[in-house]
Amino acid sequence: MAAPSDEEGAVGPRCHHHSTAMLDVSFLPFCTFLGMLGLLCMAMVGTWCQHWRGGFSLDGSSRTFNWHPVLMVTGLVVLYGAAALVYRIPNTWSGPKLPWKVLHSSLALGAFVLTVLGLMAVFCFHNSQGTPNMYSLHSWMGLATVLLFSCQWAAGFGAFLLPWAPSWLRALYKPIHVFFGSTILMLSVASCASGINEKLFFSLKNGTTEYKLLPAEAVFANTLGLLILIFGVLVVAALARPSWKRPDSDSPDSRQ
């Protein structure tokens, strides 16, 4: 049997190269799509609470509770995801890192503030209605995520923004910080998804169409949960992609 010619043998590598190029996506279009997806999640959770759950108030009623999912999705998922992707922006790969450090920590701090307000909303609702706190898996996982988030922010601030942190400490803590950044995001997504499911189980009964019959609210909220999951997975995928990682040639960043 005749050996394949050079042109025939090159078909495979060329096809592989073209298929890889077709799958390659630059960061900015990907980030634009991700931003639109995050805004869609925020709009959908607001629409769900306004249209089906009665809107918002601060009177301790169920309308006070409605601030909880809105603030959690906005802060703990969307804004936190934006903070995680700051160092993937190509403009951060050269020049001083300090402005980007401040932006990263500010976005994370904003996400934390919204998260705390979301926790206050649900505790206020439970206390005014005489409902026990912290009895479900969703509540345990959510509070654990927030506590881990607070430790992550404080440790990151101390290690990377304060000028007296030694370079060896920054180098030692950096991979830990990156790992827990992705971990907290996925825990946030899991907490939001379980919270949506829990709310549907509690709400769609006793005078409303049961959850198992899949009314319009259930379809809408389930779709919201899937979009939140997709958002979180895409953020983690962007963080893990080698070609989008900031070059580590400036390891003396601790000198700033």
UniProtKB/TrEMBL annotation:
Cofactor(s) the record lists: heme b
Domain Cytochrome b561, residue spans: 33-240
Catalytic activity: Fe(3+)(out) + L-ascorbate(in) = monodehydro-L-ascorbate radical(in) + Fe(2+)(out) + H(+)
Main location: membrane
Keywords from the named record: Electron transport, Endosome, Glycoprotein, Heme, Iron, Lysosome, Membrane, Metal-binding, Oxidoreductase, Translocase, Transmembrane, Transmembrane helix, Transport
SMART domains: B561
Gene3D superfamilies: 1.20.120.1770
Pfam families linked to this entry: Cytochrom_B561 (PF03188)
Subcellular localization, as worded in the UniProt entry: Late endosome membrane; Lysosome membrane
InterPro entries, A to Z: CYB561/CYBRD1-like (IPR043205), Cyt_b561/ferric_Rdtase_TM (IPR006593)
Domain of life: Eukaryota
Record's bilayer topology term: Multi-pass membrane protein
GO CC, alphabetical: late endosome membrane; lysosomal membrane
A molecular-function term among this protein's GO annotations: metal ion binding
Transmembrane segments: 27-49, 70-90, 102-125, 137-164, 176-197, 218-240
Its job: Transmembrane reductase that uses ascorbate as an electron donor in the cytoplasm and transfers electrons across membranes to reduce iron cations Fe(3+) into Fe(2+) in the lumen of the late endosome and lysosome. Reduced iron can then be extruded from the late endosome and lysosome to the cytoplasm by divalent metal-specific transporters. It is therefore most probably involved in endosomal and lysosomal cellular iron homeostasis.
Record note on quaternary structure: Homodimer.
Name of the protein: Lysosomal membrane ascorbate-dependent ferrireductase CYB561A3
Record lineage: Eukaryota, Metazoa, Chordata, Craniata, Vertebrata
Gene name linked to the record: Cyb561a3
